[in-house]
Amino acid sequence: MANGKTRKPNWRCIKRHRNYTVDDVARKLGVAKGTVRRWINTGLPAIDDIRPTLILGADLIEFHKRRAKPKHKSNRDQCYCFKCHVPRIPAWNIVDYIPITLTGGNLCGLCPVCCTLIYRRIALANLPVLEGIFEVTILQAEEHLMDSARPCPNDTFEKEP
Ligand SMILES: [Zn+2]
Fold it and tell me: Which positions of the chain have pLDDT values less than 50?
């Protein structure tokens, strides 16, 4: 986590009142286009019902500010609340672990102040440490997959002999 050593995107060249395509943002900030798309997937607002996808400068700046804030990195026992804009200790110290990849996932708890869901991305390897702090319920990734792939109950019903 050496700060300042990595090439930092120059956020100052983003103008609040301009629109940018994914290409523009990538070029201006010197990041990969994939990175910009990932930002869109993780909450950067974008106008994607037109081609090319447009991002408002103001949204981009807001998104950056929001992401930049928890840099005084949240402690192990905290998840970031996007509503309160501060790291919070999940209510009752109860969290769910939702696997996303084979090696990591999200801790999900409840903000004790505003009651929104708060998340924290963690590596699966760190789960044992967190289980010492929280009461962790591990959700199965397959459950989610099966849910989305499962046919409508009516279909199953019709296939019955
Ligand atoms: Zn909150």
Answer: 1-5, 71, 145-161
* Residues 107-137: tens digit of each pLDDT: 999 999 999 999 989 999 988 888 888 899 9
Ligand 1 midpoint to CA 59 (Å)? 21
Question: How many Å lie between the centroid of ligand 1 and the Cα of residue 104?
Answer: 24
Domain that holds residue 136: 73-148
Residues 65 and 29 in one domain: yes
CA 140 to ligand 1 center in whole angstroms:
26
- Compute how many other C-beta atoms are within 10 angstroms of the C-beta atom of residue 148: 6
Same domain, 17 and 82: no
pTM over 0.90? The answer is no
**Residues whose CB is less than 8 angstroms from the CB of residue 92 and which lie 6 or more positions away in sequence, other chains included:** 110, 135
Domain count, the chain: 2
Residues 51 and 85 in one domain: no
